[in-house]
Design goal:
One of its GO terms (molecular function) is metal ion binding. InterPro entries: MBL_Glyoxalase_II, Metallo-B-lactamas, RibonucZ/Hydroxyglut_hydro. This is Glyoxylase, beta-lactamase superfamily II. With 199 residues, the protein is an alpha/beta fold. 26% of the residues lie in helices and 33% in strands. The protein is built from six helices and 14 strands. The strands form three sheets. A six-stranded mixed beta sheet has the order 1-2-3-4-5-6. It has a six-stranded mixed beta sheet with strand order 7-8-9-10-13-14. Strand 3, helix 1 and strand 4 form a beta-alpha-beta unit. The model has no long low-confidence stretch (mean pLDDT 96).
């Protein structure tokens, strides 16, 4: 597996290209801003894009979706709850046209020979999703290195995010690497033992 991280836009939101290097098939996760940069990075990998995945629908995570979808004509997946909040709020949510399909907790998607397990982790948003691929988990704005996502936006809930992290993420193996929506990567063991929000 090859993971390319592209910090994009003024909030340096991590867009990830995850590729099965054997068959050179990839997914694009959270193409938020700077879609031209993201497309250039995809082209440099000389890979086939099979899907776009969204951890949630805040604008800094989905503003580049239309450009990337138009370029590669692939499905876009997100949780159904995000659609409701895109209709309710235009301060932090992006406004995607209805070009997406819905995923739920426990769904399995494929990229090449890699299985992508979809994990519903509400708290930062109601439809927040994390994605587990082998020993890597992509956590969006649910879990950061030494921190957690904000819960003061519409749809956020502090108790819910703590529950999601404890029950859905910290149960993963110690060596699982955490790839967040902003900032550097971490590990489950580091967050379980060193994250002050989870003590």
């Amino acid at each position: 597996m090859i993971i390319k991280v592209i910090p994009a836009g003024p909030l340096q939101t991590n867009c990830y290209i995850v590729m099965d290097e054997k068959v050179k098939e990839a997914i694009v996760l959270d193409p938020g801003q700077d879609p031209d940069l993201i497309i250039r990075e995809i082209e440099s990998l000389n890979c086939k894009v099979s899907a776009i995945l969204l951890t949630h629908a805040h604008a800094d995570h989905d503003d580049g979706v239309v450009d990337v979808k138009n370029k590669y004509n692939v499905p876009v997946y997100m949780n159904r709850e995000e659609e409701k909040y895109m209709d309710l709020d235009n301060s932090v949510y992006g406004k995607l046209p209805k070009i997406y399909d819905f995923i739920e907790d426990g769904d399995i998607l494929k990229v090449g020979d890699l299985d992508i397990k979809c994990i519903h982790t509400p708290g930062h948003t109601k439809g927040g999703m994390c994605f587990l691929i082998e020993d890597k988990v992509f956590t969006g704005d649910t879990l950061f290195q030494g921190s957690i996502g904000r819960t003061d936006f519409i749809g956020g809930d502090f108790d819910e995010i703590i529950k999601s992290i404890n029950e859905k993420l910290l149960i993963l193996e110690n060596n699982v690497e955490v790839y967040p929506g902003h900032g550097p990567k971490s590990t489950i063991i580091f967050e379980r033992t060193r994250n002050p929000f989870l003590a």
